[in-house]
Amino acid sequence: MRKSVTAFVGLGSNLGDARQHVEQAFSDLARIKETKLLARSSLYRTAPYGVTRRQPPYINAVAQVATFLSAEALFTEMRRIEKKHRRARPYRFAPRSLDLDLLLYGNHISRSRYLTLPHPRLHERAFVLIPLLEIAPMVYILGRGLASAFSYRLRGDKHEQSCLTNIASMIDALSTRNGSYVRYQNQQ
Fold this sequence. Notes:
Layout: E1 5-13, H1 18-30, E2 35-40, E3 44-46, E4 58-67, H2 71-84, E5 99-105, E6 110-111, E7 116-117, H3 126-135, E8 140-141, E9 145-146, H4 147-154, H5 158-163
């Protein structure tokens, strides 16, 4: 009997109705064949990362799925969802209607031209780590360690602190004294 693999997908959008793009992407992920949506994080509003041109803020989140698909097949389905949302890639760090990143795929480590697992910059980005830890507080990044160790290191990083806008209180396990890491969806 085949066993499913647990995978984590990062979601982000900063064009059009960014919140709606991310909400729809959760639904789209749940409809991928042989894949089940297990958990979804809150939505987080973050400043654009690595950009040199002015852009609107992002809405970021993370989904946990169980899948019988290979990492490559899941990645292909994620690209299909991005295409449905009219994702364009005119230049690095360009604004996007939807960005889906395969962050972790079980205990799988791989590197190809199109897919590296675990995601090579997962441990460096609070806008991914915080929603990931919300739904999987004990998640382990192969070759790196517990993801929670990196979130605490990033709290001292000035860019990462400015990335996350103070909108509501974060869950107790991830709260900070200055309230930098907070949820978006509580604001209506």
